[in-house]
Specification:
The complex is a heterodimer of chains A (about 280) and B (about 325).
Chain A lengths: L3 E11 L5 E10 L3 E6 L5 H9 L4 E8 L2 E2 L5 H7 E4 L10 H6 L15 H13 L15 H14 L4 E5 L7 H18 L2 E5 L3 H7 L2 E6 L2 E6 L1 H4 L2 H8 L3 E5 L6 E5 L9 E2 L7 E2 L6
Parallel strand pairs in A: 3-8, 3-9, 6-7, 7-8
Antiparallel strand pairs in A: 1-2, 1-4, 4-5, 9-10, 11-12, 13-14
Helix pairs in contact in A: 4-5
Chain B lengths: L1 H22 L10 H5 L5 H35 L11 H15 L8 H19 L1 E2 L2 E2 L1 H24 L3 H12 L7 H19 L2 H6 L4 H6 L4 H23 L5 H13 L3 H25 L8 H19 L8
Antiparallel strand pairs in B: 1-2
Helix pairs in contact in B: 1-3, 1-13, 3-8, 3-11, 3-12, 3-13, 4-5, 4-6, 4-7, 5-6, 5-11, 8-11, 12-13, 13-14
The chains are: A alpha/beta (about 280), B mainly alpha (about 325).
């Protein structure tokens, strides 16, 4: 297909004697808003690393817009792909400096300072993320949500065509979760920015993503629209969790509810043996 | 701008300190007399100025600047505030080289001690570099540990050699390790200053990568910076600079540890200005340490390493605790 933007073909990579991705295939269209879901250790981050180049491919290829990434220099790669890591590093720099760092791949070799355009682009994303009042604060002096926003602003300042985010809403309150997802969604729609994120919150995944990839044991076990992927059977298969799926009353998107039928019953204290605790389970 | 002003102040202070260093000492001059002394080669003052004070001042400038610059870069690439130019074992290697030369009597054969110091430093740099590369990747954590281990091994070897030697040689070894700015060969001194200024220029070209590495190697790589190559180049530059300094002046401690921190406190962590600032401040600091070493028990002289440790350490603690500043670590 001509619209194939990110093409991951037969990718094999991993850690010697450890976790491996084996002949993995994945294709994303330009302008997709895609999510990768799966249990911890299912290969989501390794898949990311195969795209960012943090891990060497032992087989297969990753192409972006028809260009093989393995043939690109780190700098050329950084002009196309920006990453927001799971744990954003802090340091003794201001929010503005952090955001401006996104211009580093666009600086010419050995250049010493950012030009007017660089500053304007950084300013644009500082404003978009609402960090304008904090732009002179050090990263060590802002909240976790603000740090995440700063990392996103920095990645956007890179002006990538593909934005990778590793759990952008983990550890954040519902306000920041909605704010960050809304912002990414509107950028995706307005500027055709292709977004691929690892996401643990299945409800957020179902609400925002238009394409979902479900991973298990280093393989893709399901992919498609949220309605297709987020079935109780798939979730039982990939996560071993018993869930109920119901359409959202407003959007009609799938909403995942845990099935309480399988939950450990309340702790009961055995009167004859004070202090001892017994857990009893339904079903088994 | 703010940074230009601060760098200008440092540069001005460096000039004033150097001039002060030229006129103070056992035989004090007035600054106004300096031109006339220089034009009269027959006077005793001329000899003092050109053979003692000028080389010492230039050497203090070159070595203070270099060690501080190396310290600020190494703390940056290892993201560790306790790293200094000697952490990677370069000083230990140089000490082994010098001690061996003294103990075996090689030093008596007309070859300068600095040659053996530099050779020892080179061997260590080679060892640390090759041992820490695996699969063409360089692990900074491993490199640091290997450097520290080589330091320990070297100091044990030095002690072993010291225990086998006689009192006169022992004295020579101890004096070398305390460091000294007594180098009267103007060629050596000006060459070292030239090298250090050129290296300052070269390292400033790496300011943007160093800035990006403030948030870790992974972040820098995602910004398109080949951190493996950058770290290798900077390691080799700083090691050779440190090795040259040790070869000429022995082990002058502390400058490379505290002047980077002091510079970060006053100018921030942006390497574009931090590198020149660290160089200037290191140079000023060592010039003043040398002045103190010369005047405290005049006409005798204290080892410079003693002054850098005591004077530098106390000053730094005072600054750190009085300003209630949060130390800006690497």
């Amino acid at each position: 297909m001509r619209d194939d933007f990110l093409e991951i073909k037969n990718v094999t990579c991993g850690y010697p004697g450890g976790f491996m991705l084996n002949s993995l295939n994945l294709t994303l269209q330009k302008g997709a808003f895609a999510g990768i879901i799966g249990r911890n250790g299912s290969g989501k981050s390794t898949l990311f690393k195969s795209i960012t180049g943090d891990i060497k491919l032992t087989g297969g290829s990753v192409k972006l817009d028809g260009i093989s990434l393995s043939g690109l220099t780190l700098k050329e790669r950084a002009r196309r792909i920006a990453t927001v890591p799971q744990f954003v590093e802090t340091g003794p720099i201001t929010v503005r400096e952090h955001v401006l760092m996104g211009r580093v791949p666009w600086l010419s070799r050995f250049s010493y300072s950012y030009n007017k355009t660089d500053n304007e682009i950084a300013e644009k994303y500082i404003n978009l993320t609402g960090l304008n009042k904090l732009s002179d604060n050090p990263l060590t002096g802002i909240s976790g949500g603000e740090l995440q926003l700063s990392a996103i602003a920095s990645a956007l300042t890179q002006e990538p065509s593909l934005l990778l985010l590793d759990e952008p809403t983990a550890h954040l309150d519902i306000h920041y979760q909605a704010m960050i997802m809304d912002m990414l969604y509107s950028l995706n729609r307005a500027e055709k920015l292709t977004v691929l994120m690892i996401i643990h919150d299945l409800n957020l995944a179902g609400e925002y993503c238009d394409y979902l990839v479900m991973m298990k044991d280093g393989k893709i076990c399901a992919d498609g629209t949220p309605e297709e992927v987020l079935s109780s059977r798939n979730i039982m298969d990939a996560f071993g969790a018993d869930v109920l799926i119901t359409p959202h009353p407003v959007t009609g998107r799938p909403v995942i509810l845990r099935n309480p039928g399988n939950r450990p019953e309340q702790q009961t204290i055995n009167d004859s043996m004070p202090g001892s605790v017994q857990l009893s389970y339904h079903g088994n | 701008m703010k940074y230009t002003l601060m760098l200008s102040i440092s540069a001005l202070l460096l000039v004033l300190s150097s001039l002060f260093s030229l006129v103070i000492g056992e035989v004090p001059f007035s600054l106004a007399d300096v031109p006339s002394i220089l034009s009269d080669p027959s006077s005793m003052e001329h000899g003092i100025l050109t053979h003692i004070r000028i080389p010492r001042t230039i050497l203090a400038m070159a070595i203070g600047g270099s060690l501080s610059l190396c310290g600020v870069i190494l703390q940056g690439i290892y993201r560790n505030p306790l790293v200094e130019p000697y952490t990677l074992g370069i000083s230990g290697g140089a000490a082994v080289g010098v001690t061996l030369a003294i103990v075996t009597g090689l030093a008596m054969k007309g070859i300068p001690l600095s040659f053996f110091g530099f050779a020892g430093a080179l061997v260590t740099i080679f060892l640390v570099y090759t041992l820490s590369i695996r699969n063409n990747r360089m692990s900074t954590g491993k490199m640091l540990l290997i450097g520290v281990m080589i330091s320990f091994i070297s100091s044990s070897v030095v002690m072993l050699l010291m225990s086998l030697t006689n009192a006169e040689q022992l004295h020579g070894i101890i004096f070398w390790t305390m460091g000294s700015l007594n180098e009267t060969d103007n060629t050596v001194v000006f060459t070292l200053l030239g090298i250090s200024v050129v290296m300052l220029g070269v390292t400033i070209l790496f300011a943007v990568p160093l800035n990006a590495m403030r948030l870790g190697e992974a972040k820098a790589r995602h910004l398109g910076i080949n951190t493996t190559v950058i770290i290798r180049i900077l390691f080799i530059i700083t090691s050779l600079m440190t090795g040259s300094c040790i070869a000429v002046a022995g082990i002058i401690g502390f400058v490379g540890l505290i002047m980077p921190h002091f510079s970060r406190l006053i100018i921030g962590t942006d390497y574009r200005v931090l590198l020149p600032s660290a160089f200037l401040n290191g140079a000023i600091f060592l010039i003043w340490c040398d002045i103190l070493a010369r005047i405290i028990i005049s006409p005798n002289e204290l080892p410079i390493g003693v002054i850098t440790g005591i004077f530098g350490g106390i000053t730094f603690i005072i600054i750190l605790s009085s300003r209630r500043v949060k130390p800006r670590l690497a």
